[in-house]
Design brief:
2 copies of one chain form a homodimer. The first copy, chain A, has helices at residues 3-14, 20-30, 47-60; strands spanning 31-39, 42-45, 65-68, 73-75, 78-86, 94-103, 106-116. By secondary structure, the first copy, chain A, is of the alpha+beta class. Chain A has one domain: Nuclear Transport Factor 2, Chain: A, CATH 3.10.450. In chain A, strands 1, 2, 3, 4, 5, 6 and 7 form a 7-stranded mixed sheet that branches. The longest helix of chain A has 14 residues, at 47-60. The A-B interface holds A 38-40, 43, 73, 75-78, 80, 97, 99, 101, 111, 113 and B 38-40, 43, 73, 75-78, 80, 97, 99, 101, 111, 113. Chains A, B: This is SnoaL-like domain-containing protein. Chains A, B: Pfam families: SnoaL_2 (PF12680).
Amino acid sequence: MSDIEQLVTRYLKTWNETDAERRRAEIDAVWSDDALYTDPLAVAEGRDAIDATIGAVQSQFPGLVFRLAGPVDAHHEQARFQWELGPAGGEALVVGFDVAVFADGRVRRVYGFLDKVPG
Amino acid sequence: MSDIEQLVTRYLKTWNETDAERRRAEIDAVWSDDALYTDPLAVAEGRDAIDATIGAVQSQFPGLVFRLAGPVDAHHEQARFQWELGPAGGEALVVGFDVAVFADGRVRRVYGFLDKVPG
């Protein structure tokens, strides 16, 4: 697994970390100082806002897990990948797509889009 | 057509503009001052480099045209869209995918990926 695949995997894991202290430590490790996350439903500038956004999503979808839905396509300092959110081993309720931009081994930007939303 | 769809269409048209003066004027109008374009084969920082990159691609694929290959999915200041490069009315030789990030009505970043390359 490439460094970027490892980082994307670790990034997705932070979305599943429900222990507040561990989640924040992971966010600090994974995201750059000037982090920016934008998807259709949320704009989060900085680690505090990203942490709060992840916490809010976990409250909205308790017990569901984020996972990669396909390969990570990476070059230079950027990657695209599809992810899904669903019960462990069950069908996804939400499918999304992110382009992540990296700097110095951390995630600096995530530009998120949605492919499937609860209907 | 939304403002962002119009801007994406105009952005793609610059890739087809082979008159050097008109192309540069369009690049100046479409791209922000701190423009950055990155795809698997090219990193172009600033309008001079973007202009040179487009010129090089036109030399590599003379007579072919860029066109949108599907809808533009946009929210906030970002959009994703698939494009293709091929003869007018003919099958695409290259299919790509861009995430574009906007600021003040111009394109500021393009994060490009490739879905099909000449085999």
